[in-house]
Amino acid sequence: MRHRVFNEDGDEELVFVMGWGNRWTHENVSWLIGTLTDADYRVHAFELPTNIEDFKADWLEPVAEYVRDLDEYQLLGHSAGALVAQALDGADNHVYLSPWWGYGGDVPELLLEAISNVPTTLPCLPVGELERRAIGEKATDHQLATTPRWVSPAFVRETRHAQEDLLTIDHDAVVFCSLRDPLIDLRPIGERVPAEHVVLYDGGHELFSSTSRERYVETLLAALEDGAEAVEETDAADEEEPVRA
Predict the structure, then answer these.
(1) Which residue segments constitute the domains of the chain, with CATH numbers given?
(2) Bridge partners for 3 per DSSP
(3) Which residues of the chain register pLDDT less than 70?
(4) pTM > 0.85
């Protein structure tokens, strides 16, 4: 697993577990990291391997061992990174972007189960080409071209088991997601996170690749700093705002 620190001189520690296929070289990932460093965070960013044999050994344990050395930190996880992040200890606040806590799309559960039982780690299952609108309208050609095209049955098995074994989501966690996201199952979010702690945005799977991303920067930073309380205060302020004809 690759790891890099951005803004060594930042005042606060922030651990960012990126999504499957996300890379620091992707323009929109770089935009998000820049937004975080501009807010004076020292960002510890992790790139997930795109094929795994064991969820804990390949994804969870490298990050878990790293954060043990941090006295205090804020936690941000996107997509598959949120599947890792929900199992980490020690963060002050937890923010999840489009958490991949369940398989989305039209793949039948019985097919996923059958695939999971195939005893191979060879990446032989086509992911298919992702459409720009599924990711976000700002997704670049480079980003789409460098998205992996294959995973293994072991990858499906291990990620499904991790989704089935989700821990209790922190009571103060905040989730940002889109109801038009075709890549994740939204039901686990609704089952585990209070509606008032969910921030809906208009776009695809990646908030940071959405054309509306600038609108949510202040809310995202507030959630990282103060948790769900900041989102609840924002909602209350919106409700008190007078309606003008």
Answers:
(1) 2-240 (3.40.50.1820)
(2) 46
(3) 235-245
(4) yes
CA neighbours closer than 13 Å in the CB half-sphere of residue 95: 27
Helix (H, G, I), strand (E, B) or coil at 204: coil
Distance CA 41, CA 53 (A): 33
Residue at token pair 């939204």: 186
How confident is the model at residue 245, as a pLDDT? 37
DSSP-based three-state secondary structure for 109: helix
Q: How far apart are CA 32 and CA 43, in angstroms?
A: 11
Our CA angle for 79, 38, 24, nearest 5°, is 40
Query: For residues 222 and 237, what is the distance between their CA atoms, to the nearest angstrom?
Result: 14
CB 188 within 8 A of CB 101: yes
Mean pLDDT (the chain) is 93
pLDDT in tens, 200-228: 999 999 999 999 999 999 999 999 999 99
pLDDT tens column, 58-94: 999 999 999 999 999 999 999 999 999 999 999 999 9
> Can you say whether the dihedral through the CA atoms of 178, 179, 180, 185 is positive or negative?
positive
State whether residue 5 is helix, strand or coil: strand
C-alpha span between 176 and 87 (Å, rounded) = 18
Per-residue pLDDT, 104 = 84
Residue whose C-alpha is closest to residue 176's, from 76, 34, 60: 76
Residue 155 tokens read as: 């990858």
For 48-127, list the strands marked E by DSSP.
74-78, 94-97, 125-126
Tell me which H or E stretch contains 15: strand 12-17
Q: Measured between alpha carbons, how far is 132 from 205 in angstroms, rounded to an integer?
A: 10
